[in-house]
Amino acid sequence: MMNEELGMKNKSSESSDNIPEYGKTLKIISYLLEYPDEQWRQNFDEYREALNELDNQQTKTVLSELFDYIEKYGAKEYENLYVQSFDFSQNTNLYLTTHDRTDFGKQANEMHEYKTLFLENGFDLDHELPDYLPAILELAASVPKESAVKILQLAKSKIELLRDRFIEAKLAHAFLLDIVLKINDELHNTN
């Protein structure tokens, strides 16, 4: 599971043995929310196999079921579903600052906050905007717990809104956001 997939650059690299459970889980969820291009499809089995590294059986089951769901669609059909659900929909796109487009000053400030989080944690993005949910989850997965809490807390209200919209749109990906919110609560309560 590589940060380079989202164009994230960091000076340090950590083996999966050193990554805490929440980090492994967030990396898998980040992957599942990324655009399903050829590279994504090539990594599908690797990420599915990574489920074996998780201890939380409930999380493992939910993620496994989503992998099965995606696999049943087939590559082209799932890509079409992804595009319709996340690229062409203003309600369910994965850019967190675009859901409240009434105040562009607020949107710019939020974008700056997300960019600052990446830079403060030694990362920069080459290919994505800093409010892209998979990138935010990848960042939270790649930093110490205290920083992960700060990142997830900043995004929490936007993730809750997106989760509600996923449910309204009947997207199975809502279960992924349930897991993210659960991780946020667990980390926040033990910090």
Number of helices: 8
Order of helices and strands: EHHHHHEHHH
Q: Report strand order across the widest sheet.
A: 1-2
Q: How many separate domains?
A: 1
Q: If you consult CATH, what is the topology?
A: TorD-like
Helix content: 55-70%
N- and C-termini, Cα separation:
26 Å
The geometry reads as globular
Per CATH, the class reads: Mainly Alpha
Q: Which CATH architecture is right?
A: Orthogonal Bundle
Q: Biggest sheet, in brief? A: 2 strands, antiparallel
Residue-averaged pLDDT, rounded? Answer: 88
Beta percentage is: under 5%
Q: Please tell me how large the radius of gyration is.
A: 16 Å
The low-confidence parts are: 1-15
Structural class of the helix and strand makeup?
mainly alpha
Beta strand count: 2
Key features of this structure:
mainly alpha; 2% strand; 191 residues; two-stranded antiparallel sheet; TorD-like; single chain
Please describe what this structure looks like.
The protein has a single domain (about 15-190), classed as Orthogonal Bundle (TorD-like). A two-stranded antiparallel sheet has the order 1-2. With about 190 residues, the protein is mainly alpha-helical. Mean pLDDT is about 90; it is low at about 1-15. Helix content is about 65%, strand content about 0%.
